[in-house]
Amino acid sequence: MSMCTHHALNVPHQETDRRIQIVDTGVANIASLHAMFRRLGYRSNLVDRPVEIERAERLVLPGVGSFGAAMQRLQELDLVACLRERIEAERATFAVCLGLQLLCRASEESPGISGLSVVPHIVERFSNNVQVPQLGWNDVEFKDDRLIENGHAYFANSFRLKHQPDGWQVAVTDYDGEFVSAMWRGNVLACQFHPELSGAWGERLVSHWLTGTGHA
Q1: Of 97, 104, 121, 191, which residue is the catalytic one?
Q2: Known catalytic residue: 15?
Q3: Is 97 a catalytic residue?
């Protein structure tokens, strides 16, 4: 049974709270995330219990590697329902790389494995027309509303979300056609790229999520 409860939307962050909780998905190298948050003046630690997900003021859902392995880990820890409720309530949550894909209904990478299903789409593999994985720098262009200026980010992905989900603002990147490289709704931000490896621009984007300021 989920230990989560629903919260009101857009609860302002307490200025004195400088802690970031990072979900221990078991498929992420989080050293670079810890380093980035230290540079930004925040402390970060790993969490893996539903009550910790519930209490977190700011939560990061990271991931590198297999969709199926990450979802199995979340299921074993009984975190699926709690994460879904938190994201649907638009509480401050930041999904990175595979973390964005985990928000979706499923992935071609792991047939038969359900994701968090906050987004009803299926994550698709890049075609054989391009080098897979996409590994390196590429442009990120915001559509409609912008969190910060358009930028250049570091990617390491073989799968992508091709369709903009209803109710979300997005940024897009062109590789084997246009795909969603970032999306946000309320206090939830998800990035297919690695902002922690994307220099000053990536840190500005994360600072925006941390403070809720800085629309371009």
Answers
A1: 97
A2: no
A3: yes
Catalytic residue among 52, 85, 109, 196: 196
Q: What is the per-residue pLDDT across 11-39, written as a single tens digit (0 to 9) for each? A: 344 444 689 999 998 877 789 999 999 99
**Quick check: is 85 catalytic?**
no
**Quick one: pLDDT at residue 189?**
97
Q: How is the chain classified by DSSP, letter by letter?
A: --------SSPPPPTT--EEEEE--SS---HHHHHHHHHTT-EEEEE-SHHHHHH-SSEEE---S-HHHHHHHHHHTT-HHHHHHHHHTT-SEEEETHHHHHTEEEETTSTT-----SEEEEEEEPPTTS-SSEEEEEEEEE-SS-SS--EEEEEEESEEB-SPPTT-EEEEEESSSEEEEEEEETTEEEESSBGGGSHHHHHHHHHHHHHS----
